[in-house]
């Protein structure tokens, strides 16, 4: 489902924000009545009333949580009303009413310009971090939640008033992003006003031209002294309004208090262009997964220019190839900065494990893909097993070893069947499912021999699980998890699941024999893993790919991957209904819970065309023909995996898995027929493929065991 229409979401706040009723009406902003804002039940009823009036979603803006109980009350109201809570975005303004007034005006402009609910919510969070208030308080008052008692009757307040009477001191504070800082103390108002101007000058140096609102106490003499240094400054700033201090402002700071709320001009103007906020994208990767991602990204109205690195023969025809080493964080960041990239999408696991996502985010660029610590869920099977243990996730019993002798001894002790895995990244090939003891021992020797490089330095030995396999990819922003459609990969090289393990020879989606209960259990497992990582200080943002075995005791995790699956992506994304750019951006900016993901009723089957000899040695450079003819078939897409383009425009083989021939159709019978018809139209020397992809979807569950 696409992002919400701008006319279907409401903006509400917990106070008038220094604006007149007519101004709020013009902005289309509703105010939670002050008498209700501390009553959980009444706030819940207020939200329901907004929905009943026609809103599909609500952005609710609140006074800094350090000053008021309003936000806490709203959160409790959402907890008590779970059926609507996912449709409400609560935003802590981090500020006071006048600054909130600026925010409300900009949010309203953004909504009117056609920006989506998700984009406006993200904009609200950005405003909350940057809009600042500098104010002169007549009393030294540490802003506090009133707890229902008027501060005028507190002993502390009376002592503060006595201190003021004796000293005549005033206090300058700066409030931004929820952080309140005492800047200066003086009995000279002119000095403090000049300091406000200097604070704005520092903001100008950092963020460029400013716009500001003067917070007045109604005393002309004081206003004049406040505004004089603002008008005689040496930086670019425009006063956009003068507003009387709100009752809340006066209550906390004293009757005579004044101030200035300011916003960078660039952020102010952003409100009017959010609808047209297209994003230039850098997509890392070179396989069929990345080609499927590229195709889906291009469908988005938010997609600007797309670069790919290193790309392949098919991707080169759809996007510009970037001369960037995908595994070099510095190169990726430098290119992204040079080209003004707004989103980096990381396809393969290797860039994640070396910390490319970390470097991109540190540079202030949105990124889809988990950070280096989170990517250990794929980079180290022992790490992932430890997380699963602590999260009470059902998985196979296991032990890890760093020396061959003790590993072999353990395998002899437990016997076969057993699973032997290289701990690190091995392109999906470092897994030996051994039905006999000698096969298991040979797997141990293969891992420790260096066949899988450093990935085999640690070996994990697991209990053998029985049941059909199922892949469930999930998107997450580190808190919320949205499961994608189920899929079933075919790992073995030949028909009937014979031969060596590969990176995947074909896949279909959805898996028809997965029950609703099993899907719910798998989703809950992925949520528990994300929660556990967060508990351990690791924010997992990106795609969490769970490989499951559907055992008689329920789903158990085989392993986790830290990215979109290959070839699962090639059958899941064609069925996805939604704006992929907005969805991936939401994973990065923690607004995923406002995204709605829907699925086509159609099914997909994808067949991998491989080079002769794969997964062993194979030749490259074979000319490929018939791709265009195959793509003329209804519902067929051909995603390039291991291909390259010659100078004269020919497509040639450049890898073991060459093409993913994917068919979308109402039934599995039709999807299989179209996919294999397309496979026959494509030709290259040594073409090999399995002929039974998708058959399991037509068979009983028992035959899948």
Give a description of the structure.
This protein is α+β, with helices and mostly antiparallel strands. Among the domains are: 6-129, Rossmann fold, CATH 3.40.50.10170; 132-272, Hypothetical Protein Tm841, Chain: A,domain 3. It has 25 helices and 33 strands. The protein has an 8-stranded antiparallel sheet. It is elongated, with a radius of gyration of 30 Å. Residues 1-6 and 141-153 have low confidence and may be disordered.
Instruction: Report on the biggest sheet.
Output: 8 strands, antiparallel
CATH topology of one domain: Hypothetical Protein Tm841, Chain: A,domain 3
The percentage of residues in β strands lies in 25-35%
Mean pLDDT: 88
Report low-confidence residues grouped into runs of 5 or more. 1-6, 141-153
- Rg, nearest Å: 30 Å
* Helical run tally: 25
Instruction: For the largest sheet, list the strands in their spatial order.
Output: 26-25-20-21-24-29-33-30
Structural category is alpha+beta
Tell me, what's the shape?
Answer: elongated
Number of strands: 33
Oligomer: single chain
């Amino acid at each position: 489902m696409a992002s919400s229409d701008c006319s279907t979401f409401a903006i509400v706040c917990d106070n008038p924000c220094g604006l007149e009723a007519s101004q709020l009406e013009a902005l289309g902003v509703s105010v939670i009545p002050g008498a209700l804002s501390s009553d959980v039940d009444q706030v819940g009823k207020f939200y329901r009333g907004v929905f009943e009036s026609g809103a599909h979603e609500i952005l609710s803006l609140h006074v800094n949580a350090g000053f008021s109980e309003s936000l806490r009350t709203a959160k409790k109201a959402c907890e008590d009303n779970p059926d609507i809570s996912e449709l409400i975005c609560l935003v802590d303004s981090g500020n006071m009413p006048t600054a909130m007034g600026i925010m409300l005006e900009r949010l309203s402009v953004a909504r009117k310009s056609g920006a989506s609910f998700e984009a406006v919510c993200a904009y609200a969070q950005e405003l909350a971090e940057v809009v600042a208030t500098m104010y002169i308080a007549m009393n030294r008052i540490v802003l506090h939640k009133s707890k229902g008692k008027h501060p005028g009757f507190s002993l502390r307040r009376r002592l503060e008033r006595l201190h003021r009477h004796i000293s005549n001191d005033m206090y300058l504070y700066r409030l931004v992003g929820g952080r309140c800082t005492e800047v200066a103390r003086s009995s000279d108002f002119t000095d403090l006003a000049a300091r406000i101007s200097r604070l704005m000058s520092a903001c100008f140096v950092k963020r460029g031209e400013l716009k500001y609102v003067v917070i007045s106490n109604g005393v002309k003499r004081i206003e004049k002294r406040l505004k004089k240094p603002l008008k005689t400054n040496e930086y670019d700033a425009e006063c956009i309004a003068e507003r009387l201090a709100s009752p809340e402002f006066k209550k906390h700071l004293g009757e005579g208090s004044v101030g200035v709320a300011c916003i960078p001009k660039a952020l102010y103007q952003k409100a009017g262009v959010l609808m047209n906020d297209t994003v230039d994208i850098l997509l890392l990767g070179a396989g069929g997964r990345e080609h499927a991602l590229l195709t889906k990204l291009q469908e988005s109205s938010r997609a600007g220019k797309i670069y790919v690195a290193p790309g392949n023969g098919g991707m080169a025809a759809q996007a510009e190839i970037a001369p960037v080493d995908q595994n070099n964080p510095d190169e990726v960041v430098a290119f992204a900065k040079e080209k003004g990239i707004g989103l980096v999408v990381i396809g393969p696991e290797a860039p994640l494990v070396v910390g490319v996502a970390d470097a991109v985010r540190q540079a202030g660029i949105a990124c889809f893909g988990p950070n280096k610590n989170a990517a250990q869920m794929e980079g180290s099977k022992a790490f992932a097993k430890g997380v699963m243990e602590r999260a009470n996730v059902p998985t196979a019993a296991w032990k890890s070893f760093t020396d061959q002798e003790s590993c072999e001894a353990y395998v002899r002790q437990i016997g076969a069947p057993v699973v032997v895995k290289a701990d690190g990244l091995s392109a999906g090939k470092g897994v030996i499912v051994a039905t006999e003891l000698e096969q298991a021992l040979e797997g141990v020797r293969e891992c420790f021999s260096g066949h899988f490089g450093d990935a085999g330095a640690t070996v994990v030995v697991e209990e053998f699980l029985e049941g059909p396999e199922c892949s469930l990819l999930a998107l997450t922003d580190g808190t919320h998890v949205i499961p994608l459609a189920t899929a079933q990969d075919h790992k073995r090289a030949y028909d009937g699941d014979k031969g060596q393990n590969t990176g995947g020879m074909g896949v279909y989606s959805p898996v028809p024999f997965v029950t609703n209960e099993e899907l719910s259990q798998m989703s809950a497992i992925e949520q528990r893993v994300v929660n556990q990582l967060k508990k351990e200080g690791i924010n997992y943002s990106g795609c969490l790919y769970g490989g499951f075995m559907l055992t008689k005791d329920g789903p158990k995790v085989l392993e986790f991957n830290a990215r979109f699956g290959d070839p699962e992506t090639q059958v899941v994304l064609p069925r996805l209904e939604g704006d992929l750019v907005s969805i991936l951006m939401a994973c990065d900016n923690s607004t995923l819970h406002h995204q709605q993901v829907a699925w086509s009723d159609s099914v997909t089957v994808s067949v991998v065309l491989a080079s002769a000899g794969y997964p062993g040695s194979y030749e490259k450079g074979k000319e490929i023909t018939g791709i265009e003819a195959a793509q003329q078939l209804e519902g067929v897409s051909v995603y390039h995996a291991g291909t390259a383009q010659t100078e004269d425009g020919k497509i040639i083989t450049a890898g073991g898995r060459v093409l993913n021939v994917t068919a979308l159709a109402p039934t599995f019978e039709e999807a299989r027929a179209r996919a294999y018809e397309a496979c026959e139209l494509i030709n290259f020397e040594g073409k090999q493929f399995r002929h039974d992809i998708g058959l399991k979807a037509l068979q009983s569950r028992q035959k899948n065991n």
